């Protein structure tokens, strides 16, 4: 079976993981990124602007639509949606695949999709529109009827929709009136997993934070909470694995920057607690990574996180932007290593039973393979 995977970049490792897992399950996988070459920079992180005519138009539309917040919502204009949809349609025609699987709904698989398609989602725009305004973060993406019409058309036109979480499934049913029969919760998996020597190592009084974007992931709140934790646990340390931590950090805090998988695995293997008090979170692959390494998790009670972390069983959930509650949760686990270890073991068992890329890919193929209509759409 030949599967075309349409995506919009690495997506925190999801693209590589899902294409690898589909291939491992026996599918022939080709991928295409309609957004390639469409960024407002020549390359991610590069300061040289991309001056292609379509990009210049997209920047102008983003500025007109989103004002000073245009960069985080660059793709969220009807111009960008339609431009990328046209490019996606060209990719579908070139691939001549038996099945089309698309990540997200930043575009449609064609201005007028010519072949049946399935979607894989970690979020919906309706969820993002309901975010409360938070200081230090971009404002919630505004409701736009023209965008909603396009997004809803893609959902309602899909042969099936795979979601990472029940939270996204609920949004599809309530916000977009998608038929429940066409929505399948398949989960996701970790991108860093323990090797044979990574489990059973001595745990240090170390709290581990892993989040590329420091502020949205609740980094400032964690620093504030950690100051309180150090009063009760003077030997406790905090390791930050992030893209941009503050220049001045409290005593006991180390900024590791962004790490490769091997170095990150060493921290997962020797830490005592994983803490990610995120403020906005589509899913949270790092929670699955921590659980795979038998770490108890302290996290925010938002979106899909309660589906991943069982409060009181595999970790502790706290309200977002509540440093006092966060400090109390960290103190409780650092003060009771046997309880922390028991939660870590339960977390590893939960992650193995409910999540994983191999499991997600197998569930997708169970839906994709029996659909004879996919073959008839080939080359259309």
Automatic annotation (TrEMBL):
<dbReference type="Pfam" id="PF13692">
    <property type="entry name" value="Glyco_trans_1_4"/>
</dbReference>
<keyword id="KW-0808">Transferase</keyword>
<dbReference type="GO" id="GO:0016758">
    <property type="term" value="F:hexosyltransferase activity"/>
</dbReference>
<dbReference type="InterPro" id="IPR050194">
    <property type="entry name" value="Glycosyltransferase_grp1"/>
</dbReference>
<protein>
    <submittedName>
        <fullName>Glycosyl transferase, group 1</fullName>
    </submittedName>
</protein>
């Amino acid at each position: 079976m030949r599967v075309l995977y349409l995506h919009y970049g690495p997506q925190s490792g999801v693209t590589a993981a899902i294409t690898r897992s589909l291939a491992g399950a026996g599918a022939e996988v080709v991928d295409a990124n309609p957004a390639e070459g469409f960024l407002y920079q020549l390359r991610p992180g590069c300061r040289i602007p991309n001056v292609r005519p379509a990009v210049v138009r997209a920047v102008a539309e983003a500025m007109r639509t989103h004002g000073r917040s245009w960069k985080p919502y660059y793709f969220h204009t009807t111009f960008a949606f339609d431009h990328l949809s046209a490019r996606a349609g060209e990719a579908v025609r070139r691939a001549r695949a038996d099945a089309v699987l698309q990540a997200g709904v930043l575009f449609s698989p064609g201005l007028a999709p010519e072949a049946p398609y399935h979607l894989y989602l970690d979020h919906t725009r309706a969820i993002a529109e309901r975010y409360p305004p938070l200081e230090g973060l971009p404002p919630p993406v505004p409701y736009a009827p023209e965008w909603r019409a396009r997004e809803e058309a893609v959902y309602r036109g899909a042969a099936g929709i795979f979601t990472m979480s029940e939270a996204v499934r609920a949004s599809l049913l309530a916000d977009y009136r998608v038929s429940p029969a066409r929505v399948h919760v398949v989960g996701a998996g970790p991108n860093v997993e323990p090797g044979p020597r990574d489990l059973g190592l001595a745990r240090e009084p170390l709290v581990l934070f892993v989040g590329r974007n420091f502020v949205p992931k609740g980094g400032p709140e964690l620093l504030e909470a950690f100051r309180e934790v150090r009063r009760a646990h003077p030997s406790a340390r905090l390791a930050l694995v992030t893209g941009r931590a503050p220049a001045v950090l409290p005593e006991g805090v180390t900024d590791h920057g962004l790490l490769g998988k091997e170095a990150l695995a060493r921290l997962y293997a020797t830490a005592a607690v994983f803490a990610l008090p995120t403020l906005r979170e589509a899913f949270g692959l790092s929670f699955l990574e921590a659980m795979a390494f038998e770490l108890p998790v302290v996290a925010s009670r938002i979106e899909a996180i309660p589906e991943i972390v069982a409060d009181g069983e595999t970790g502790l959930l706290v309200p977002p932007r509540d440093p006092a509650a966060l400090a109390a949760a960290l103190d409780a686990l650092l003060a009771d290593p046997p309880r922390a270890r028991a939660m870590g073991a339960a977390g590893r068992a939960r992650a193995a039973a409910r999540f994983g890329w191999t499991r997600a890919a197998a569930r997708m193929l169970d839906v994709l393979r029996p659909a004879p209509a996919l073959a008839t759409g080939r080359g259309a």
